[in-house]
Design goal:
The chain has 149 residues and is of the alpha+beta class. It has helices at 10-19, 23-27, 47-59, and strands at residues 30-37, 43-44, 66-76, 81-91, 104-115, 118-128, 135-139, 142-146. The protein has one domain (7-128): Nuclear Transport Factor 2, Chain: A (Roll), CATH 3.10.450.50. Strand 7 and strand 8 (142-146) form a beta hairpin.
Length: 149
């Protein structure tokens, strides 16, 4: 895989690897000791674990999924470091019975670092967007979106 040549290209490179179902290419965007936190708080601490988790998902419940990159915003922290936020739309995720689920929207954040061959992710976090909600309420072992307005 060719690394993104600018931080702005990171979300599309991630989406391209996802759409190709290529967990190796997806993980190649991450430094060896990268951190990745997914939408439910699973936290992977290195490239190998990021690859393993995505390989599993892309072969099972995400096997028919499509992600579309929306808005991308970059904040340069220095010449060699940037924070990249992007909005995603994901569709085609499967439930446990193999039926297609509704479309989801998330915001993903990459902490990016310039390397000799291009930009790599040092840390990434993906967060589900729950339209109209402000927070979650934890009750009886369940998280429920809530709006206090």
């Amino acid at each position: 895989m060719t690394l993104p040549q600018s931080p702005e290209q990171m979300p599309q490179a991630f989406a391209d690897a996802w759409m190709a179902r290529d967990a190796t290419a997806l993980a190649a965007m991450f430094v060896e000791d990268a951190d990745f936190v997914n939408v439910v708080g699973l936290w992977w601490h290195n490239r190998a674990d990021i690859e393993k988790a995505h390989d599993y998902g892309l072969k099972t419940f995400f096997q028919n999924s499509k992600i579309r990159v929306g808005r991308v915003e970059v904040r340069h922290l220095s010449e060699n470091h940037a924070i990249v936020h992007t909005r995603w739309w994901l569709e085609g995720q499967l439930d446990q019975d193999g039926k297609s689920l509704d479309k989801r929207q998330t915001v993903m954040m990459f902490v990016a670092e310039r390397h000799e061959d291009g930009w790599m992710a040092v840390a990434t976090q993906n967060t589900d967007v729950v339209p109209g909600m402000e927070t979650y309420q934890a009750k009886d072992g369940q998280l429920k979106p809530a709006d206090y307005r």
